[in-house]
Design brief:
Helix content of chain A: 40-55%
Shape of chain A: globular
CATH architecture of the largest domain in chain A: 3-Layer(aba) Sandwich
Number of helices of chain A: 17
Radius of gyration of chain B: 18 Å
CATH superfamily of the largest domain in chain A: NADH-ubiquinone oxidoreductase 51kDa subunit
Number of helices of chain B: 7
Order of helices and strands of chain B: HHHHEHHEEEH
Bound molecules: flavin mononucleotide, iron/sulfur cluster, FE2/S2 (inorganic) cluster
Largest sheet of chain A: 4 strands, parallel
Number of strands of chain A: 8
CATH architecture of the largest domain in chain B: 3-Layer(aba) Sandwich
Helix content of chain B: 40-55%
Strand content of chain B: 5-15%
Strand order of the largest sheet of chain A: 3-2-1-4
Largest interface: A-B, 52 and 39 residues
CATH class of the largest domain in chain B: Alpha Beta
CATH topology of the largest domain in chain B: Glutaredoxin
Shape of chain B: elongated
Oligomer: heterodimer
Strand order of the largest sheet of chain B: 2-1-3-4
Chain lengths: 423, 153
Amino acid sequence: MERPLTRNFRPDGPFDVKEYEKAGGYEALRKVLTGMSPKQVCDEVRASNLRGRGGAGFPTGAKWAFMPPANGEDRPRYLIVDADEMEPGTFKDRLLMEGDPHQLIEGIVIGGFAVQADVAYIFLRWEYKLAEKRLRKAIAEAYDSHYLGRNILGTDFNLELYLHVSAGRYICGEGSALVNSMEGKRAIPVARPPQQTESGLWGRPTLMNNVETMCNVPHIVKNGAAWFQGLSVCEDGGTKIYGVSGKVKRPGAWELPMGTPLREILEQHAGGMRDGVKFRGVLPGGASTEFFGEEHLDVSMCFDSLAQVGSRLGTGSLIVLDDRTCPVGMLHNLETFFARESCGWCTPCREGLPWIANILKDIEEGRGQPGDLEILEAHTRMLWIGRTYCALAPGAMEPLKSALRYFRDDFERHIRDKRCPWR
Amino acid sequence: MLSDLVKQEIRSRVDRDHPEAVAVEALHIVRNHYGWISDEMLREVAGLLDVDPAELDGAATFYNHLYRKPVGRHVILVCDSVSCWIMGYESLVAHLTRRLGIGMGETTADGRFTLLPIQCLGSCHTAPALMIDADLHEELDEQKLDAILAQYP
Ligand SMILES: Cc1cc2nc3c(=O)[nH]c(=O)nc-3n(C[C@H](O)[C@H](O)[C@H](O)COP(=O)(O)O)c2cc1C
Ligand code: SF4
Ligand code: FES
């Protein structure tokens, strides 16, 4: 089985530019700059069925095609890589940046060419210190080797790449909030339209993609869309880095065919549950996705199949709940996180999330009241899609909505017995 | 008073097309030099960039790593997100607060440590995790944590 994204990973640190070249690196970029038009690159990516790995699964080729045509004068155009990874349970982008920084840079230069960007940024979260160090070194090497800067590989294509280290906040990862943050303001989302491809950073055409999305680009260009399709076992192309955390035997991350069954990831790769604990449920794609129970373990982990059974692939990061951990406590943790991270811009999110977190705290600590679950359920509707500026609040409702269904008995027992049975 | 060095560093980052964009970065520079951003420093940065101090404070109070209060010599950022919570966050924090004699958001009397919560550190597979200053520490238990604390005088 091919693992294009992680094949260069080495325990003693990432490849430098020479080692990366020796392993076939920057060949895709050379191929693009010496023989392909921007449109051909966009078409290849579109044909590959690559979908965004930042959480929403938007088709990457389609997003690139939204960029208005470049006329050579109306400059600059921007490309931003969202490396703010803070979705609880998610650590794949960190591994990609630490493990093979040149792969990301090559993806950025190819993507930059495809949408005719002049300036690219990697928007990196403050805490990723090792990734920062390795990216800085790799970027300097790429400039020295003429993969970045003016006249890349002797052509007339220019691209500057800057590493922007964020001052930190979960909401910065949301595309429009990220742009506000880069403009020196509070990271508050902005209602769309206009889409960022029309009006993004400084009101200029801006393409934004996730780290893992961009890392796939060199491989698609080098090996073709059909090859990329063949890597997966479903409609979406490529491999996916799936992560598992919680009380499994071997928590970790693995690059597997897109569409690998949930059960295979949990049992084969993560080694199943630790001795003495049983599986109760799993958030399949990070904190903002809906719980799955035992009956869903055979679902294929790709965007469409998860949507069909009522959850989302999200970041492909599985968080496992076991029978020794209280589901109400887990929900309290999740909603407290979302309440704290709300940017406060819209009322349902700013006021609703703390209310939810307080009710969950009361239930967990034995002060739950009859009617509390109905109040929580009402919130899952009032904070739903269409009622807020961004996806933070609806995302926060996904685990809650599904937990009220799956773990109903546990919630009711807390309220009835006025205590948490796990404490 | 900001030192000339700090002012120079801030000025060197200003993008001529978009001077306002440097606001967050400027505060970051101040924080890195002095550990935190006092009212006086904030006003000085605002003057330097010719922006409204209240608006600059809006940015300063928004971000996790721009401290508007003094902090200790070392800042402990404890991940309180879901995977770490499942893997023993509560007992880890109970141990930390007992050892240091402070709660979340507080600084030890000797000014050695400040204890702050942080969202997921991307170490969910090696949970529970925390950072001390710029260093990540993973797969923690009480014993391991005690040995690590000793490395930060
Ligand atoms: C609250 C919130 C936080 C987000 N954080 C991130 C993030 O850290 N990294 C990321 O790539 N996308 C994040 N996203 C999704 C982005 O808005 C955007 O959809 C994504 O970067 C697009 O890239 P893609 O098409 O390659 O997936 C976040 C979205 C929301 C609503
Ligand atoms: S949903 Fe929440 S985080 Fe998103 S814009 Fe509204 S208040 Fe801000
Ligand atoms: S939840 Fe603590 S590192 Fe991810």
